Amino acid sequence: MSSKPSVIDNQSFEKEVLKSNLPVAVYFYSEDCPPCITLSPLFDKMAEAYGEQMKFVKVFRQQNRQLAESYNVKSSPALLFFKDGEEVCSRLNGYISSPELRAVIEGILGGTCIRRERQQVHCDVLILGGGPAGLSAAIYAARAKLFTVVIDEGLPGGQVSTTFHVANYPGTNGVIRGLDLMENMKRQAVDFGTQLDEMKEIHEVNFDGEEKHIKTQDTDYYAKCVIIATGAQPRKLPAEGEREFRGRGVHYCATCDGALYQDTNVVVVGGGNSAVEEAVFLTRYAKHVTIIHQFDHFQASKAAQEEALKNPNISVIWDSEIRKINGENFVTSITIENLKTREQKELETDGVFVYIGMQPKTDVFKDKIALDEYGYIVGDEDMKTNVDGIFVAGDVRVKKIRQIATATSDGVIAGIMAERYINGK
Amino acid sequence: MSVKVYSTPTCPYCTMAKEYLESKNVQFDYIDVSADRNAANEMITKSGQRGVPVLDINGNIVVGFDKAKIDSLI
Q1: For position A151, what pLDDT does the model report?
Q2: Which of A47, A68, A148, A366 has CB 3.0 to 4.6 Å from A142, enough for a Cys bridge?
């Protein structure tokens, strides 16, 4: 039995791995991947020590993309273990330590390792949130040769992905689709070596000590440094029946669902830019749009206001809030209250589109890090929080202007400061 | 396998769903409910709601671009 790992490819995979009589450790590697540089000598050492009982093979991931993808391997290094043609045990990713690798190998040889659900990832920089702030931080951190992982509770892209056209991001043609802009950022981050893990909802964080630990449903992440870029989400309408009628008359995305309201009467709640602009958008489909706002004037820009107010199919009810959503299967009316007179009345409508601002996604960080009274994370101009090794970037940070450009700017600073933090240790 | 995607032209999640299915080489009908009133009603009846996208994968209804659910059905 050779004691050196052999390099295999697509063609020899079946023979060397699936049809092997011995259990097999398969190491997917890439060039220029810092944790691979650490792992390779370790893998060779294990091959020498355990080569009699186990086969060790290496697959160059970039030249065998199809093979890697068929096993859902999206990053390097990834260690997979096979026995009798089937994958066994848990995979190892990121910085893998010698005891960790030894434990898995001995588990397989001893027959005690059954498939463990939880995965472990060790990295330099862990970025929470894959919007413009998180991805910009990733571009800088990954370019600085730090092993960088971005996790997102949904799909990377953040709020921008749900914006139809982005008009004001410098360097674009002014009509770029939000989706395309974020796809570009994503690709840029990945090309520099970032690992992107989607659909990872954060369950618990532990920021104490040198190594930070972040738990998701199926993975434990350990990082030297964390950048929080979880962003914000639309604030839900605080009215009775909101949850019940969500999707059935209560909506938060006019560009998505507006088209389902052809020739109907709809309501837009709010008075900022989004509310007023989306009201104008909805007149493409709806017969009439009523804006309901809690004050007697809009906060939206002059230009946006003028466009809405001159539109004959838009009217405004000032000083009022929605108290209740009424209907059976779908919304048929709402109960609104005039905040000055306290008078309540019912208004017939087919749909309610809500644009009443944002709320930060920081529930999981409560008591772990300093937040302001609205739940935003406090960071200084270097994006440092009150906890050593934890940085913040983007909409989730306490600041006045929340734009794509200010999010990317935060991200760049956080990425550079993270590098200095790690290299200064 | 029969897959239908009910969508509107300006909806970003619809585009994501479409591009995702394409990346998985799944054939599907892409239905613009803003242009087809009957299809819109069909979608509302099937899914009991008015949000897009709605995917009908062999009679299983998925509301929104729910990747995990789509993966389990294709």
Answers
A1: 96
A2: A148
Domain B3-73: which topology?
Glutaredoxin (3.40.30)
Q: Is residue B38 less than 8 Å (CB to CB) from chain A? A: no
Cα–Cα distance measured from residue A354 to residue A342, given in angstroms and rounded to the nearest whole number: 22
Residue among A32, A55, A34 nearest A43 (CA):
A55
Predicted local distance difference test score (pLDDT) of residue A115: 57
Tell me the domain boundaries of chain B.
3-73
Q: What is the pLDDT of residues A385-421, one digit of tens each?
A: 999 999 999 999 999 999 999 999 999 999 999 999 9
Which of chain B's residues have a Cβ under 8 Å away from the Cβ of A249? 50
* Rounded CA separation A68/A78 (Å): 10
Q: What is the pLDDT of residues A282-331, one digit of tens each?
A: 999 999 999 999 999 999 999 999 999 999 999 999 999 999 999 988 99
The verdict on domain A6-116 having CATH code 3.40.30.10 is yes
Question: How many beta-carbon contacts under 8 Å exist across A and B?
Answer: 71
A89 is catalytic: no
Query: What is the ipTM score, two decimals?
Result: 0.79
Please give, rounded to a whole number of angstroms, the shortest distance from the CA of A237 to a CA of chain B: 17
- From the list A161, A255, A261, the residue facing B10 with the nearest CB is A255
User: What is the rounded average pLDDT of the residues B24-40?
Assistant: 92
Question: Residues A202, A207, A209, A215: what is their CA dihedral angle, to the nearest 10 degrees?
Answer: -10
CB A179 within 8 A of CB B16: yes
Domain with CATH 3.50.50.60 in chain A: 123-233+358-423, 250-354
